[in-house]
Amino acid sequence: MLQPERRLTPRLCVRKYAARLVLAIFLSGVPFSFLELFFFERTVSLALIWKAFVNTLNGESWGHLWYLYTMVGVYLFLPAFKGFTDGAPRRAQEYVLLLLLLYDFCIPLFDSIAGTKIGFESPITAPVFYLLLGRYLADETPRVFRSKKLCAVIPALFIGVAAIFERVSSNEIPLLPVLVPFVTCCVVCLFKGVHVPERWKGALWKLDRLCFGVYLTHPVFMNLVYKVFHLTPANYKAYPLMMVVFFSAFTLISFFASWVMSLIPPLKKYVL
Questions:
Q1: What's the distance, CA 178 to chain centroid?
Q2: Which residue, of 3, 22, 176, 263, has the fewest CB within 10 Å?
Q3: pLDDT for 128-148, tens place per residue?
């Protein structure tokens, strides 16, 4: 979105990008919220539908939709962000990224360790940091991230350490959120410049077009299996193996559901 050759206008950002996500929020959020309310109240009424609508408006539908609410704001401000990245020298971009890293990651870390609540706040949130970081990394790979081996090892170590602490401790690890931007840089730079053979591009693009539908629908199947049938990987002795089995099953059925949704012309044109 922030590439120099891309043309963005306020009209395009509002009518194409933001409007699409608003439709996705309400077309998925209202039914999701309604299902949650129905399971508690065991009744169907107009009041229940209205409550589901209000919950979705308030961001109180299923938790995974938080990303869409955030992205609506990002899309609305895209022309301003693009104006900055197109005109700002690399030094100015580094300055802004460092400030956002300090405000959005380092200060919360200090607060959690010291038990304080520092009053200085950034008017720009973490998603904008990642947006600007993406353009920064696309322009030029920093020297520290030029080693592909290092960029592969660091995320693997991070995930391993996080998984171990998740198993042995119920407390959150304050340092992990601060490391996420660094791990993100590793992942981006690891795949940056990867050549995709021409024979694969068509299939990969078709798969890519289904991913948004997978994002919207996958919690439906997870909630159905976990909350209705009361099946989780923890029910089985071969817990690690069943994690893979459940993950694979949810992935396949979500892609199938997304493909079915893509066959509905209005959904494909305006939402997916």
A1: 17
A2: 263
A3: 999 999 999 999 999 999 999
